[in-house]
Amino acid sequence: MDPMADGAMAEQKARAAAWFEQLRDRIIAAVETLEEGPAAGADGIAPGRFALRRTRRHAPEGEDAGGGTMALLRGGRVVEKMGIGVSTVHGRLGAAAQAAMAARVPGVAEDARFWASGISLVCHPRNPHVPAVHLNTRMFWTPSAWWFGGGTDLNPAIEYPEDTAHFHATLRAALAPWPGEYDRQKAWADDYFFIPHRGRARGVGGIFLDDRNSGDWEADFALIRAIGEAFLPAWLPLAQARAAQPWDEADRTRQLVHRGLYAEFNLVWDRGTKFGLASGHDAEAVLMSLPPLAMWP
Amino acid sequence: MDPMADGAMAEQKARAAAWFEQLRDRIIAAVETLEEGPAAGADGIAPGRFALRRTRRHAPEGEDAGGGTMALLRGGRVVEKMGIGVSTVHGRLGAAAQAAMAARVPGVAEDARFWASGISLVCHPRNPHVPAVHLNTRMFWTPSAWWFGGGTDLNPAIEYPEDTAHFHATLRAALAPWPGEYDRQKAWADDYFFIPHRGRARGVGGIFLDDRNSGDWEADFALIRAIGEAFLPAWLPLAQARAAQPWDEADRTRQLVHRGLYAEFNLVWDRGTKFGLASGHDAEAVLMSLPPLAMWP
Predict the structure, then answer these.
(1) Which of A81, A198, A287 faces B283 most closely, judged by CB atoms?
(2) CB pair distance less than 8 Å for A263 and B268
(3) How many angstroms away from the CA of A83 is the closest CA of chain B?
(4) Taking Cα atoms as reference points, which of A189, A139, A127 lies closest to residue A9?
(5) What pLDDT, on a 0 to 100 scale, did the predictor assign at position B4?
(6) What is the arithmetic mean of pLDDT over A46-54?
(7) Which of A8, B35, B123, B188 could link B47 by a cystine bridge, Cβ 3.0 to 4.6 Å?
């Protein structure tokens, strides 16, 4: 089955899917340049490079269900592990996913077909002063509805108020053409990136939205592009500056414990992880977000 | 509210709760003795000792909801981290837990009161040749039903068929007075201790049972005691022997990656973890099962 077979919104789907790949390529280029720069505690380590591999969604019925690529950088000078997944998948929702989505999306109860494309990245830096970061944007389609979703949030092991301020100011500026949108998405992120069983936020927040369908696909796609394009200016300067800052074993321990919280959030609460595991996407790709090393002392 | 306030099965509840504490004390004594013995790669490390702290269940309504103790050994010669939680909690099930349980237990839909007592332990050894292990047994009570549940399973990072054989043979012998019980519980463990998204078992199995109510509380309590009493003979000789075996960095990496799978199972699939986090029990106590250090390379 061709993902565009039914023709509905074929052009929009193709444009969204292509844009997620372009964004991935720009981020890869920027991070590989970052790897060439100063990095405290990285003497003797070569600049990291991304390796790409194909990923497949495994549909229960065995038919073609789409897939994507996973770009993974391991053991770099600045980046200890960073995964960027881009995938375009389609098929029929499993019973559990269908039931969960039918509560939000009219029509899904009657027709379980879906198509989804998106980019998802998580960066776990080596230097504990460099903040970990997450970005995810996607387009979702069912025969009765389409919508965009996504967000980005900063997860420093050691918090610097000026870094948090820069990250948020950049996102606020990127969303300025949409009045009220930054405030709404920041509040949504504060609510979403929260670890209930720990009674705390997983990081210092960011922006988040889901179910975005204003009725104007072009306008909503522009909003999603603005979020994706804000990612590098929001995070990269922080990474460049903090990568040169010396760190010690106590900093490292704080980082590993903080990563434990990150793993807890992703495995217990994250909507994308749950959907990915439940819908049969490549587990290695879904779980590339997990930290290279984490501690529960 | 006194956990025995309604008087129903007060003597049985008290005996079960007391027995879980006795089992905990015996295991602590045995592991602290194990810590005095040979341990490869532990030069200069002092024998570990358990530290006990009180844990509380936090009921939404703020009333006394029971609690327990968490015994934690960190950074020992043989044991890198081992937690043994014993708790006796009571109150009313939250809406989600009530709905989930009502499907299995008639009467829960009408009356959400519950009482539960149990022991739960996980051991993450330092030496990658020593198998990690888990034990959990509990009594659960609602106004309309009581039952026992639990199990134990072996989680070696590096598998030795003779260790697996000893573990299973000891459990089989312990359950010999209950014809068919070992085979039934082994099959249940194979089904339960499985990581669907990885398509693999989390370890080399063991035994598992839930909803045990034969109508004869004394007989079922005896079965649960037999499982608890089999734990030390099943695992301790393996730990003693393997702790003396030299290990290297490659062994350590295998261990840390295997621990990542263990964390995934507990955070994504484990019934006890989900119940604990959803019912407001101390998150540190519920998550003491997480490995001290884990790797997702």
Answers:
(1) A198
(2) no
(3) 11
(4) A139
(5) 45
(6) 96
(7) B35
Contact A268 B264 (CB under 8 A): no
Identified catalytic residue from B124, B134, B166, B258? B134
Model ipTM?
0.87
The answer to whether the beta carbons of residues B48 and B32 sit under 8 Å apart is: yes
Q: How many CB atoms lie within 10 A of CB B194?
A: 15
Domains, chain A, with CATH or none: 12-289 (3.40.1500.10)
Q: Which of A134, A166, A258, A281 is catalytic?
A: A134
Q: What share of chain A is helix, strand, coil (3-state, %, to 5)?
A: 40, 25, 30
Which residues in chain A have Cβ-Cβ distances shorter than 8 Å to B199?
283
The shortest C-alpha distance from B10 to chain A (Å) reads 31
Alpha helix positions (H), chain A: 10-34, 95-102, 161-174, 181-192, 217-242, 249-264, 271-278, 283-286
Residues 6+ apart with CB under 8 A from A273: A266, A267, A286, A287, A289
Of B74, B199, B286, the CB nearest to A297: B74
What is the model's pLDDT at position B260? 97
Residues of B in contact with A286 (CB under 8 A): 197
Asked about B134 being catalytic, the answer comes back as yes
**C-alpha span between A191 and B40 (Å, rounded):** 47
Q: How confident is the model at residue A281 (pLDDT cuts 50, 70, 90)?
A: confident
Residue B260 CA to residue A263 CA, distance in Å, equals 10
Of A198, A264, A293, the CB nearest to B293: A293
Q: How confident is the model at residue B96 (pLDDT cuts 50, 70, 90)?
A: confident
Whether pLDDT at A283 is above 60? yes
Question: Alpha-carbon distance B109 to B112, whole Å?
Answer: 7
Q: Which of B105, B155, B157 has its CA nearest to residue B133?
A: B155
Candidate from A203-212, B96-105, B142-151, B175-184 with smallest mean pLDDT: B96-105
